[in-house]
Amino acid sequence: MNWTLARRTQAMNPSVIREILKVTEKPGIISFAGGLPAPDTFPVEALREATDQVLSRDGRAALQYAASEGFGPLREAVAAQLRAQGMGVDADQVLITSGSQQALDLVGKVLIDAGSRVLVESPTYLGALQAFAPMEPSFAAVPSDAEGPDPEALHRLATAGTVPARLAYLLPNFQNPSGRTLSATRRDELVAVAQRAGLPLVEDNPYGDLWFDAPPPPPLAARWPEGCLYLGSFSKVLAPGLRLGYVVAPRAVFPKLLQAKQAADLHTPGFNQRIVARLLDDGFLERHVPNIRARYRAQCAAMLAALEREMAGLDVRWSAPEGGMFLWLRLSAGLDATALLPEAVRAGVAYVPGAAFFAEAPDARTLRLSFVTASVEQIDRGIAALANVVRCARAQSPDAPAAAALDTGG
Amino acid sequence: MNWTLARRTQAMNPSVIREILKVTEKPGIISFAGGLPAPDTFPVEALREATDQVLSRDGRAALQYAASEGFGPLREAVAAQLRAQGMGVDADQVLITSGSQQALDLVGKVLIDAGSRVLVESPTYLGALQAFAPMEPSFAAVPSDAEGPDPEALHRLATAGTVPARLAYLLPNFQNPSGRTLSATRRDELVAVAQRAGLPLVEDNPYGDLWFDAPPPPPLAARWPEGCLYLGSFSKVLAPGLRLGYVVAPRAVFPKLLQAKQAADLHTPGFNQRIVARLLDDGFLERHVPNIRARYRAQCAAMLAALEREMAGLDVRWSAPEGGMFLWLRLSAGLDATALLPEAVRAGVAYVPGAAFFAEAPDARTLRLSFVTASVEQIDRGIAALANVVRCARAQSPDAPAAAALDTGG
């Protein structure tokens, strides 16, 4: 049998990260490669209680087919949460999705034609590239400075060519992979430029609640509600295995997203939605999320301290995130994070090379480190091992200054 | 703000049925319109126990991100179940999806290009039309006789035109909406024709376990594993609110379906998958499903008896399904089920007009009745009310023979 596959399948590929994780998930490896939240933070007991309550009180309704928009009280709770962050949101603008990954799929279906220009950050979240890819867009990477995507470059790319860009995808808080957060000023500038160009913004915010010292500035969608789609998730503040996210859409787009949702899987499990609605109703998140913040903050501090200690003199640079799960590292000149990974794994430490996160012009020197699943002791050992790998590679690299010279000078 | 939507959104529409259900779900209406399983059959207590066990034993794993293919033991259990029905299936050919609706979405993404010819039954499952529509196929309805789709017509449509049809979508058991089941002979003939034409078959089987007196013949996929995609679901045998289904694919197609799944929502909730895996492991379905069968069988018999009693002499024809949830009815000549619906609702009874289920040449006289959510007493009253509506309409219809004449002769 000779199967004819749709043309779009040529744009669909196995996840590079998934392949990397297979190699790195060996026993004894200290892995900073995963993108998973720390499982010790999952509130197993609270979920068991909420599940019991849902099944006792509304068991049959929770197990029946349900509305494609989502469970009313959950939509209300999400809207209330976002209003508290400065967004003007009604519950009927909230579409509950099967994780925010599905929101990306629906957004792609509704906004992207084959050949549509889609602007992304550089680097950007790999899962968004994968979600949009089946719609066959042409990706363009917006150049960045230290503050994030460059507003003038965004405007240039939005209006270049004969047809305007279809959307810009932005992850303003503690970005995956770079850990970067956009300042309030940069948010204002980007929104002003998007308004001027009539460029829809897709704002993805899975990590915004995981701040360390202070909440990030209000979302882009608070500044320009009618031009933004806003994506959120319960994966990082409760548990990803429930697969619960949402997209908030202006009334001009909501009905088409809803039709796409209905065609895609009818609705997100009502069982899961009711469990989470019960936890929200109970104020559980207000008690729970501060614990995650404190934990991740301590682990991030440990990783930053280890990097300071171990990478001295190795010409390595890294970000200092103000929240989230990831830290972004740039190796010495002449080193390639993909080429170095097998050596790192042999030395007992794993990361994700940064190249996969670039839609254009990958920076081979970059890599992503997750600080949330390893213990402080593992972080210390893992960063020390990584520093050793870098030191040896520099000693062998013709492009880098001799390691010995730097070590004594560092 | 002026949003530019993707071209495919023009092919996406609000569900007709959904709109109808809004009208018909008024208090006091006896509704045969829904497509929902009977909620009294949902095993709330068994699910509570299974959930408790999953959270106690593997809580953190159940709540973490998981493999896009699905939870291993669930894939194994599905494969074992299908092998018992005569299919040669390995667990690694089973992709767990968020309901079988999502399997349709993934199949559409992987097999359908804009303009691809897609063959469907006449009538066919509306949800499949909706799932495929965003990929912008050109639907062609295969003419049927009393036994189901006509094999020679299938061959003609598969090979007509310059480009072969991309797939044929078939629902062989207790079809939604017609209630029809394909005989073993017809299955052989359709598979032989598809093999000859190199036409992939997408076999959807959400109702196969709900047989009344005897299981349906083995699936098409058992006859031609390398040319069929086989879709199944736990929605009708356990509960739809868990959103668990699957697609079994030959090795030539599986990797692309998996990539599409990963891009669509990363994975189906591991929490839900483990709950159902536990129930299957425990042999729960073998004890549970016979109760659903007995119940639906009795309700179907009650509806058939009511139709015999009430529709006598009204020139109405209906199917006698051997399982499933639906019965298909064809009104007297000159009557239009869509036009008649408001009158039926006024008389306190609701159904879904059949026209929505046709990709081409809708038969306006047809309508779908669900026999699973109404009680026997409601079935009796509802069918009597429906017969009255038909009787009055016939009296007013110029095309139909006078009702009085038929009543005395019936």
Automatic annotation (TrEMBL), chains A, B:
* Classification via Pfam families: Aminotran_1_2 (PF00155)
A biological process term (GO) from this entry: alpha-amino acid metabolic process
Q: Does the keyword RNA-binding apply?
A: no
So which domain of life are we looking at? Bacteria
The protein's UniProt keywords, in alphabetical order, are: Aminotransferase, Pyridoxal phosphate, Transferase
| GO molecular function annotation | pyridoxal phosphate binding; transaminase activity
InterPro entries in the record, alphabetically? Aminotransferase_I/II_large, Class-I_PLP-dep_aminotransf, PyrdxlP-dep_Trfase, PyrdxlP-dep_Trfase_major, PyrdxlP-dep_Trfase_small
Cofactor(s) listed in the protein's UniProt record = pyridoxal 5'-phosphate
Domain Aminotransferase class I/classII large, first and last residues per copy: 40-386
Cross-referenced SUPFAM superfamilies, in alphabetical order? PLP-dependent transferases
Query: What protein family is recorded?
Result: Belongs to the class-I pyridoxal-phosphate-dependent aminotransferase family.
Subunit relationships: Homodimer.
Question: What's the protein called, per UniProt?
Answer: 2-aminoadipate transaminase
Q: Which organism is it from?
A: Tibeticola sediminis
Highest classification ranks of the organism: Bacteria, Pseudomonadati, Pseudomonadota, Betaproteobacteria, Burkholderiales
